[in-house]
UniProtKB/TrEMBL annotation:
Source organism, top-level taxon: Bacteria
Entry's Gene Ontology molecular function annotations: catalytic activity
Transmembrane segments: none
Name of the protein described by the UniProt record: Amidase family protein
One Pfam family linked to the record: Amidase
Gene3D superfamilies membership: Amidase signature (AS) domain (3.90.1300.10)
UniProt record similarity statement: Belongs to the amidase family.
UniProt cross-references to InterPro entries, sorted A to Z: Amidase, Amidase_CS, Amidase_dom, AS_sf
SUPFAM superfamilies: Amidase signature (AS) enzymes (SSF75304)
Domain Amidase: residue ranges: 27-473
Amino acid sequence: MKSQEFIQFDGIGLAGLVRKKEVHPKELIEAAITRIEEVNPKLNAVVNKMYEKAINEASQNKCSGAFNGVPILLKDIQQEVAGELITSGSNAYKNYCATEDSEFVRRLREAGMIFLGHTNVPEFALMGITEPKASGPTRNPWNTDYTPGGSSGGSAAAVASGMVPIAGASDGGGSIRIPAAYTGLFGIKPTRGRTPVGPSYGRIWQGASVSHVLTRSVRDSAAILDEISSVEKTSAFTPLPFYGSYLEELSKPVSKLRVAFTVKSPLGRDVDPNCKEAVYQTAKLLESMGHMVEEKDAPVDGRKIGKSYITMYFGEVGATIASLQGNLGRKVTMKDVEPSTWMLGLLGQSVSASEFVLSMREWDEAAIAMERFHETYDIYLTPTTASPPAKIGELDLKPSEEKLIKAVSKFGMGKILKKTGIVDQLVEKSLSRTPYTQLANLTGQPAMSVPLWKTSSGLPLGVQMIAARGREDILYRLAGVLEQTGQWIDVKTNEVFAQ
């Protein structure tokens, strides 16, 4: 199979060819490798390659399952393959190899998928862009001057350029939905606890982070969730049960939905007109389908949500840096991580236990408020992001900011820095471009980004739809219908894919 033929199929399509014995899994793997080698030099999406192991596995063809022989790339954090590098986007882990498969990887393997490598991530998956110092920036296939978003930016660029039809991703504050929005893909963050996090973890980011995939087709996403979702005994969270098949939901009619929408930033900041228009046009489309659509804000305080998210973020970065000592075998210094990571860690050390607990209570209060909200509305529609993709390097630290971080580090001024009001400033700076996605992470709700709009310059923009906890079925059913409309973006028309 030639790479140009390979890229025309989604994962289910490729699995069908294998099942009918029209192609051998080895042919799929070789076609995917050819495609990666063709376009990865332009995009820098794949940072760890497992070609030899993948070819050997495909040659044996001992796989079975719904995705038998289908190639997949994994995200370079928490999606471990035994014996393979997993760097988390940091030079501090540049020589670290996983000792066992993660549960997420194990379930994909049972589904018959074959792993080709890991995709680029920002250091410790902390940013909404993918520009780690360890391996350099990943570029957007629609325009390589721009970011594909993050933290699953490498996976997004890989799928949007045809390297693979499906790639592993995770979402702790929008890291599936943001890159999906920026690259014209479909991405859904499942309900908290729906997908596995073990065996090394019982929770990630206090339950805010959930693993899943980025795909070109809705049916691939739904079928993967069917394969990987089941109760994990060691997980800290158990979701509301779903006894059906997400893939089968796509063939069911969509009943009349009650949709609330907003274009206001939860932080009260400006929202790009393109992002607003994407929501307005989607609202009109839904209304034309017979759904009840009403402009209505969520019953939560956006600034409180932002601050509680950032508090967790600081604490988790502080814990990550502290845990590095075991890997390095010595005291961790500022030179071991990127300057912004170090600063976040210092702020994390200044967060008290009571502050952390109070921030977690905000999560629960928001979850309760949103459950009540969804007694009236089935879907909450917002922009996925408040801004189009940034240019590569646009969000780099300024020299003055790097000097400040060095001074803070040298004199141990984390607590003093916190008193200056920098936390509020960081909430504004970090979340102003992407203020919509964190809510679902904190409340545990499923949320998806759907590719229904482009900017005036031709870059994709997604719209976000949030449902009540446990109701991925509603989201998939609606996405399946929207995928058949003329508004759905055809990713095969992007700059790199079309070459």
